[in-house]
TrEMBL record:
<keyword id="KW-0597">Phosphoprotein</keyword>
<feature type="domain" description="Cytidyltransferase-like">
    <location>
        <begin position="61"/>
        <end position="247"/>
    </location>
</feature>
<dbReference type="InterPro" id="IPR005248">
    <property type="entry name" value="NadD/NMNAT"/>
</dbReference>
<keyword id="KW-0548">Nucleotidyltransferase</keyword>
<dbReference type="InterPro" id="IPR014729">
    <property type="entry name" value="Rossmann-like_a/b/a_fold"/>
</dbReference>
<keyword id="KW-0520">NAD</keyword>
<keyword id="KW-0547">Nucleotide-binding</keyword>
<dbReference type="GO" id="GO:0005634">
    <property type="term" value="C:nucleus"/>
</dbReference>
<keyword id="KW-0539">Nucleus</keyword>
<dbReference type="InterPro" id="IPR004821">
    <property type="entry name" value="Cyt_trans-like"/>
</dbReference>
<dbReference type="GO" id="GO:0009435">
    <property type="term" value="P:NAD+ biosynthetic process"/>
</dbReference>
<keyword id="KW-0662">Pyridine nucleotide biosynthesis</keyword>
<dbReference type="InterPro" id="IPR051182">
    <property type="entry name" value="Euk_NMN_adenylyltrnsfrase"/>
</dbReference>
<dbReference type="Pfam" id="PF01467">
    <property type="entry name" value="CTP_transf_like"/>
</dbReference>
<comment type="similarity">
    <text>Belongs to the eukaryotic NMN adenylyltransferase family.</text>
</comment>
<comment type="pathway">
    <text>Cofactor biosynthesis; NAD(+) biosynthesis; NAD(+) from nicotinamide D-ribonucleotide: step 1/1.</text>
</comment>
<protein>
    <recommendedName>
        <fullName>Nicotinamide-nucleotide adenylyltransferase</fullName>
        <ecNumber>2.7.7.1</ecNumber>
        <ecNumber>2.7.7.18</ecNumber>
    </recommendedName>
</protein>
């Protein structure tokens, strides 16, 4: 279990590069198709070479509804940098399929496109993978993690180190504290899946207001058993934008500016999403 930095002095926050602060003029775009038969695994922002051989290559996978994606989801993926032992090769949003019966889900092709719009001008490492969303039936998160592992390690052989050898990428699930707390809901998660996700992959937990992550880690047997593979990202500034509230604001005709990227707001209006 990773603990937050003890003092701020010990923890040197990397300064963002200019490109990270500006919206990219020349966006790195490779849109996902809307049919499974046209599906390809997106790799256009994936780093293929490890810069620091002492670090462990990692790909972050964020599963969720993203209905719609907000600045919280974008910021959540950024906080990994506090952990200095990983070198991030890339990150993916994997929106759930339409079969996931949750209130407020816009059709999956809209959710995928909104995620793409959100990252295409603002990130040099985040991509959107439509595989899960293109499936007619719901796919459990453990199977989604296997899909990423297969694409990255089995099909592509991981990454290249400086001496030309290939190294396996650690695929890690990025999840908010609330998602982790859902592990305790009876029959929602299979124990075998939790052992697989936590034991064979790993979880990066982003603290969320109202969720006592450390207390929960202590109380949950399977999480505790795999605690070495569980990394908690302490939120220094809490951001509690929620997609539910964003949908409600839109429905009530209120402004959602500064809660999500303008390109996503424009898309929502153009496609008349969340108005009813
Ligand atoms: N405020 C937050 N702080 C930390 N993590 C969050 C926050 N909001 C969402 N997440 C995380 O983002 C991921 C995807 O979230 P998802 O879109 O499914 O839920 P949500 O934003 O809570 O949406 P909804 O309001 O529709 O339930 C999940 O891992 C969730 O825990
Ligand atoms: N058994 C499982 O694999 C399982 C159970 C609950 C949620 N999840 C995942 O968690 C993510 C977020 O779910 P919610 O939007 O319901 O918070 C989704 O990607 C969903 O697929 C997976």
């Amino acid at each position: 279990m990773e603990h937050p930095p003890k003092t701020l002095e010990e923890d040197v926050l990397p300064s963002p590069t200019t490109t990270e602060l500006e919206e990219l003029d020349d966006p790195i775009v490779k849109l996902q198709p809307s049919k499974m038969e046209d599906y390809f695994f997106p790799v256009h922002k994936l780093k293929t070479r490890l810069e620091d051989d002492k670090k462990e290559p990692v790909v972050i996978v964020a599963c969720g509804s993203f209905s719609p994606i907000t600045y919280l989801h974008l910021q959540m993926a950024k906080d990994y940098i506090l952990d200095t032992n990983f070198e991030i090769m890339g990150g993916y949003y994997s929106p759930v399929s339409d079969d996931y019966t949750k209130e407020g889900l816009a059709p999956s092709h809209h959710r995928v496109r909104m995620c793409e719009l959100a990252v295409e001008r603002t990130s040099q490492w985040l991509m959107v993978d439509a595989w899960e969303s293109l499936k007619e039936e719901y796919t459990r998160t453990a199977i989604v993690m296997d899909h990423f592992n297969k694409e990255l390690n089995d099909n592509r052989g991981g990454v290249m180190t400086s001496d030309g050898k290939k190294r396996k990428i650690k695929v890690i699930l990025l999840a908010g504290g609330d998602l982790i707390e859902s592990f305790k809901i009876p029959r929602l998660w299979l124990d075998d899946d939790l052992h697989h996700i936590l034991g064979d992959y790993g979880v990066l937990i982003v603290e969320r207001t109202g969720a006592d992550v450390f207390g929960f880690l202590l109380s949950h047997d399977i999480l505790y058993q795999h605690r070495k593979n569980v990394y908690v990202i302490k939120q220094l500034i809490y951001n509690d934008i929620s997609s539910t509230k964003v949908r409600l604001f839109i429905k009530r005709g209120m402004s959602v500016k500064y809660l999500l990227p303008n390109s996503v707001i424009k898309y929502i209006h153009e496609n008349n999403l969340y108005t009813t």
